[in-house]
User: Fold these one by one.
Assistant:
Number 1:
Amino acid sequence: MLKKMNKKGFTLAELLIVVAIIAVLVAISIPIFTSQLEKSREAVDAANIRSAYAVVQSAALIQDNATDFAKNNTANATFTVSESEGSYKYTAVVKLKQQQDEWQSGAQDIGGVTIAATDATKGGTATIEYDQTTNQTTITMS
């Protein structure tokens, strides 16, 4: 008499196919994940530059002194004021977090100043400077 076999579980071939499919999905998703991670770092950099720009502009409007302006210092941005001949110069230096040269997301417009994608560098800084004598704000990337 033949016994009926209970088939519980998966065969080796079925398991190998599932593992192969998962490996293909992982191989496709890793480059996509890393590019999105870099774009998020760039978005953080742009947000930090916009924030520093706003702090510099507000300090210039109320003619903030060096002590109050320096209270805005963070781990990512340093704020300084210099005075010469009765005129103030407000400066903010923002450390960039991106890990690739150039912005993958394209040029950024911050406060009417367009920053080209090629200006951003890995581990660089953005300097926002308002000069009271010329009444102009500049953003330079290095």
Note: The two ends are 84 Å apart (CA to CA).
Number 2:
Amino acid sequence: MIARALKLSAFVFAFLVLSSCSDDDDDTFANVTVNGTMLSISPSDFVVGDRSDFNGDIDASFTGNGGTAIRIFSWNNNLSTADYNADITATSEGSFQIIVRDSEEAVVLDRTIQGGTEPDSIDGVTSSGASGIWTVTIEVTNFNGDGSFSLSEGN
């Protein structure tokens, strides 16, 4: 009797877990990975503090299957500018946007790459800003494809 009850409980538990995780109506996603770490911080979760999430060069990638995501991280930049580079391989839909703010929250970079158009890459040097902990916002919107971006302390 106990074995039967345990089997029934296990079946009910498995059914509830599997049915609650199933999402057949929406297979879209968008992921952002920085220096090997998948970012899960959204704008509502982010609090600017006195420590950075990353030090040194940023090497990041993103993928999407029609999804939209906004991810934010902090980065320690000891200089007043940053070198940046971004490249996408995408269908005609979607976009990639990078916004970088200096330690005083001034926007030093705001660039977008639109899928299916040229150029499909951007690079350069940010505007001059205050050194310290910078905030980087990555937004992929209805993005189909993949891409990468990098940041490093400027000259």
Note: Helices lie at 2-21.
Number 3:
Amino acid sequence: MIEQTINIEKTKSIANKEAIIVVVGFLGTGKTTLLKHLINNYLNEGWNPYLILNDYENAHLDVQQFKEQIDSNWIKALSGSCICCSGIHVLRDFVNNIPARKNGITLVEANGTTDACALSEFLGVGIEDRFLPPIQISVVDTKNWQNRGENNELERNQIQVSSLIALTHTENTSLERQTVVTNELQEINPKAKIILVDDIDVTKLPELTPANTTPEKMDHHKAHWASCSVDLPQLPNIDCIHAICKQIPKSILRVKGCTQIEGENTYTYFERTPSGEAYIRPFNGIPPMGSKLLTVGLGSEVSLLQNIVASSISNSHNQLSHK
């Protein structure tokens, strides 16, 4: 009877407080796709999600991807700082200033190089009592897990203190590969639940509790990468975007941009994943910071990007003139 009373009180406590779900994971694992999935499901269940997006360069570009789902007043962009250290106080202020609302839930997308252990340690300090302790979901790319070379340690760090690990990109992997990855994840974080991203029940996420694990120490500077951005002129065609993505060195793991194609009134968004694949799609609206090319990773320098853009445009014009 006493145990039942305690459980009832615990349920009431959870019901009266807003959950904070932090989505972490290496670059290109599918964090944005997961967030869209969560937001759609929460809206269908009558919840009111609030979204905070973090990136080194111009997180406002990412905001546009969610405007068709939720009002822009319920989205905050945190650019130019690392939320696991220098940006943590800004993130706390963002959270504490979220309007109180019925059935509220806060979703935070950390940038792909975040020291997830440091973020977990510091975020819960100073959060108002109307929120539950933040919990982490790690997104793991099954195909590329621990194929990151010198960044393998960072990828392992990002799952150590997560309560749930969501597997993505399983459609292109064998059952043997999925078993190997699952076993490795369980060895690093035996207390986390591991699940396919499509099998997540959003109604159960607020009931998760912070992971009670002792993470391995990592040199925090390994989570601090070079980044930069340059203005993009109008580009001759889509092929020019592919050329830019191809010419940017592989040491630069994060590439994204938004620009106009000559003769078009709308904008085009593009990104290159760490595996080198380029994805191009229409951009919803006008980019608030103008047309930009943004990169994160070793070798991110303004002069390099400017030269690549100029070369790609010149080559594209030369090819058109010979047709």
Note: Residues 103 and 123 are 22 Å apart (CA to CA).
Number 4:
Amino acid sequence: MGIFKWIGGFLGWMVAGPLGMFAGYFIGSLFDSDDEKSSIGSGEGYTGSSYATGNGSQHSNSNYDSGQRNSFLFSMLVLASYIIKADGKVMHSEMEYVRSFLRQNFGADAEVQGDQILKRLFQEQDRMTAQDPDSFRRQIQDVCRQMKQHMDISMRLQMLHFLTLIAKADGNVHPSELNALYELARYLGLTRSDVDSMLHMNSNNQGGYRQGGGSSSSTANEMTLDDAYKILGVNPTATDDEVKTAYRKMALKHHPDRVATLGDDVRKASERKFKEIGQAKDKIYAARGL
């Protein structure tokens, strides 16, 4: 399945606003042949009226689920471009993480075209920043607001999880990347605690985050007690009842069923995250004798 299908088939609510602007630009720039332009113009892969528009319009479940996934993945690329360039450099390891994600789930064509989209996003960021240093940042803020309006909190948390994995891909979370993660979380209606929680997870065996930058070489099986508290978003001084309440809230927000419409790969990533939340709870409970 090429990337065209999940850009061309974006969700109805993404037609308007900054995401629609980005999508329209890249659809037009990636496909140059007359046949491809014709198919895009005629709506191949995208039947706007069959997708949710945010105003209660009717849609088929299959189209809606596909549209949710397509919109999620395209939005991830847009926000990934902001995280990857946050430290002023485009690291090979971070780019390779995104390429690998696309290759494994969409095939070689998607990897190549997704790579092109990221590079064009970097170019657009450079162009806009040269004219006004804050212009691309404002555009990203508007993108996040659009996502906040149309994606529930579990989807936004999963988006943030992918962004933290990208930031950690080179083995070091630069302070500017950390600030960018906090910034995007705020725009998405999430919290600094959400970012810290995900940074201390070891999903995909990328190592846990340590305050001050860098990653540990530990695996999920070697989660520290400090990691466990950070993952649940509570202080070591929290009462037993506060720890239990924090875990219940985390389990509800991060349950894999809540992102099932985004596809098996996204659900599996959510399952790994959910498992680590359970491991953090078990670690704290064992230390407290609960």
Note: Residues 32-60, 204-221 have pLDDT under 50 and may be disordered.
